């Protein structure tokens, strides 16, 4: 059995929603509720409310849950490379989408963009967006 670090309740994560018919794979901003060791699954809660004012909960395998570093942890992370494919939180939303690193924080000349990545999201008309470093995550390697 592989020994993994169990994420504590309250940890912010990017969570891959269960595949829904006629929908693309979607990663959402969520919070860990608990870990069920018998099933080897996390229960996570979407930070966003659905159309009925409820927060959806999902049971997910650990490979579908990526911890989001807090501000102090994000400062200590190695920068992701220019051109690297990543999952990034789309500005103004609670969804993560595939993007490419255009400029890491160390290359930003403007002090207002300290610890900010410049990324280009797929299918976003070649526009660049600025995303906080803690919301730019390494793209997980998925086994198809």
Automatic annotation (TrEMBL):
InterPro entries: SGF29, SGF29_tudor-like_dom, Tudor_SGF29_rpt1, Tudor_SGF29_rpt2. The keyword Nucleus applies. Residues 3-144 form the SGF29 C-terminal domain. It is found in: Nucleus. This is SGF29 C-terminal domain-containing protein. Pfam families: SGF29_Tudor. Keywords: Nucleus, Transcription, Transcription regulation. Coiled coil: none annotated. One of its GO terms (cellular component) is nucleus.
């Amino acid at each position: 059995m592989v020994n993994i670090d169990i994420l504590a309740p309250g940890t912010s994560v990017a969570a891959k929603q269960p595949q829904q018919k006629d929908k693309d794979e979607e990663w959402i901003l969520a919070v860990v509720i608990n870990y069920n060791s018998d099933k080897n699954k996390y229960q996570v809660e979407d930070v966003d409310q659905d159309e009925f004012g409820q927060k959806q909960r999902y049971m997910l395998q650990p490979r579908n849950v990526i911890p989001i570093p807090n501000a102090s942890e994000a400062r200590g992370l190695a920068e992701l490379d220019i051109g690297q494919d990543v999952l990034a939180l789309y500005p103004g939303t609670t969804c993560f989408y595939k993007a490419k690193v255009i400029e890491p924080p160390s290359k930003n000349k403007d002090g207002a963009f300290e610890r900010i990545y410049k990324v280009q999201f797929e299918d976003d008309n070649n526009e660049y967006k600025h995303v906080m470093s803690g919301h730019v995550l390494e793209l997980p390697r998925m086994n198809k």
